[in-house]
Every structure is written in C-alpha cells, then in structure tokens.
Amino acid sequence: MGFSGNDIIAYSTTDPHPADQEARANDLYGIQMIECGENRCVRIKTQSGQRWATDFLSNSPFGLNTRSDVRRASVEAIDDFGALHSSVAMARTETAIVNEITHRLVLMKTGDSQARIYPTTLSANIATSAGFASSAFDATAVVHPNAHATVQFALKGAFAPGRIITSSNTIGVAGSFAKNTRRPVVIVEDGLYSMGNHADFQGLSDYLKNNANGWLWLDDAHSVGMQGDNGRGKAMQSLASHEDRTVVTGSFGKAFGAAGGFMVGPRGFVDAMLRESVSDRFSCNLDVSAQGAILASMKILADPGEYRRLKEALAARLSLFDAMLAEAGIPTEQAGSTIAFRVVPCSDAASAIQIASTLLAQHSLITTPVYYPTIARGRGAIRVSLSATHRLADIRKLAQAFTTLLATNDPPGPACLQAQRLSQETPA
Length: 428
Prior knowledge:
Blueprint: H1 20-25, E1 32-36, E2 41-46, E3 49-55, H2 68-81, H3 96-109, E4 113-118, H4 121-133, E5 140-143, H5 149-158, E6 164-166, H6 170-178, E7 185-190, H7 201-210, E8 214-219, H8 233-238, E9 246-251, E10 261-266, H9 267-274, H10 278-282, H11 288-302, H12 304-327, E11 341-346, H13 349-363, E12 365-366, E13 368-371, E14 380-385, H14 392-409, H15 415-424
Parallel strand pairs: 3-12, 5-6, 5-7, 7-8, 8-9
Antiparallel strand pairs: 1-2, 2-3, 4-10, 9-10, 11-14, 13-14
Helix pairs in contact: 2-11, 3-11, 4-5, 4-9, 12-14, 13-14
C-alpha cells in the first residue's frame, strides 16, 4: 500500500505551515544550490557551510537540464537572436524559436490545435482559466480538490465562486450538471498528480462522448516530456481522439530540463482566450535562453532511439529502488510504475523531517519531506525524484539508508505495517 490519490489534499495559501520552520532549521527548506555537477550531484550551501550532495529532490527524470547540448543551445539562442528577450506583449510577437516550439506542441496534441508558451506554468494556467471563464465561452468548472495549486489559484482568480464546483467525483458531478445546462462544463484535473496516480482517462473520454457540452482541462506537468510518443505525455496520448474539446497545460521545467510553461488546445478556444488572457497581453515573454533549451530538449525527445535510451535508463533505476524497498518491506504507491518519483510513507511530519534531515546530514542525499498541506493533516512522507542520470550506487545508498532509518524512526513494528495503517486512515 502507501499513499493514494485520496491522501493528497488541495494546497491553500491561507493554511499555516507549522512544520516548515522545523524543515528550514534542518536545511530542508529554502536549500541554496550553488552548482550542478554530473550524475545529479549538486553543491549546496547549508548552515554548516558548502558541500556536495546527490539531488533526489528536483523533478528532472531525464537529466536534460545538465546535458551539455541543452546548455549549449540555451547560450547559442541568445547569441543567434542578439538579445535576451523579445516583445513583452506575447500576443503581438514571438521569436522564430517559439514558433517552432509551439508547432511541435501542436503535433503532439494533434488536430486543429494552437499552442502558447509562458514564463511559468502558473502563467499558462491563468491564461487557460481566463479562456474558460470568458464571456465567449462561459463555462462551469468541476475541479478535483487535488488539482495542482497553480490551477486552483488561477480558477479562483478568473471564475465567480458559484461557477466552480469542487468534487473528487468530477466525472459523475460534471456528467449530471452537463445534462442540465447549455453551458460548457469543463472537468479540471491533473493528468498525473504530483504525489502519484494518473487521472481516469477512460472515464474522462466517456464523459466527452456522452456530453456534447463537455470539456477537459488537464494539467499534465508531471507527465509531459517523459511519457507518451515523443514525450507528449499521458493526457495528450490518452485523449488524442478528443483533441477538439481537450486543453492541456504543462511545464518545460521538469522532463524537458528547461524553464517555462505551455498551453495547447483547440484553435477556437485559444483564439477566444487571447482576447481575455492577461498572461498573453501583459506578461513578459519567456527569455530566449529558455526557448533555446526547450527546443533542444524537444529535439532530443523526438529522436526515438535517444528517447528509448533515456526511458530505459530511468526504468532500470526505478526498478532497482522498488526492489530494494520491497525487500525491506517498505511500500510505495508508485512501485512498479513508470512515474519518475516515489513517495515513502512516514508516521508523521516530524518523522519525515527527521529522516530527510539525516539523509542529508549523514549521507549527503537531498530528498523532500512532505506533510500538511501537501498531504492530509497528521501524515508525513518523503518524496524521492529519480532520474536516468543518477548513479546506480547512489540509488542503492538511498534505499539502504531508508531501510535503516524507517526501521529506527517509526516504532512500533515494521515500516510496512506503519505504512499500511496510514494508508487505511481517512484523510483529514
């Protein structure tokens, strides 16, 4: 067992963060990275000084952010263009690099689609929310409570409160509502949730088949770039037959190893969105160096042989980590999947912080302790991001450390029994 999608709760900017101060005191919050080396080694600054450690925190499943050809493309893009950035008003002009990036996104999405790129995924989500809330579209949004924080923030800024319905049963609620209104009813979810589990793509497909006014908006930031053909992600891959009523947002800062966010959707939706989108009219354009890195990464992932090699290297490391944890009786919900992270349950927030602190202080391994409001109140876990560029020796070192630390920090009983008990509790 372990953590399921139901264990995750929506982030709220008004909720307190009682464990953050403790995490900061243990060098686990606000980490200063000074330099990136090879094999996910990073030089960091802690309270005791500078040191090198292995990064199991960053979401970079293929390690493209440190590849020399991606770094070189970033620098060359500035030299070739002759400036760091172009027009501030993104709807008015774009570089030739952006034109090629958006063309590739349209090919990934298929159909009569249009794509936009933004400085951040939050900017992309704000633009998308504006499109669905616009007078031209006038949708009602049925939102999963575990949808990403940036999505929820964007929706609250664009929609009147009465036009947002929050439910973990998005398909059932949206289906009932769509049959009693002429307005578009859009289901809003993550394609792959940040703590694991994909959306119910078959159920979402059936929703669109059964409701002519049904729409989907999926934030697929954790899947795009590492799943599907040429890195198109799970959402675009699974819903290709519904491209005319599906909008996908995502990040270039994870699998693509670059920076920025994107939105790709039906041309009619995007055209209407541009009339309302603050992100497109007033937000600064994504800088040219990031554009160069994005395009270089997209070309890498479009090479079938290189994409296969990267996925196989990642799969080998995931398999090794899963096998070692399983042998020690430590479960994770993601075990056996191609998801590039694992969430290891702990007894509570204090235990998660203590274990992550020990991993850093004694083993030079950087992980992410998670607790409320990322997961349900009273729970704790450690999120581990694995990549194709981690050394196998470092994977073994991490798994062995977990075996020892979970056994000593989560009494009474084996870690597996602790995790099973947590997984059976009702989230707060």
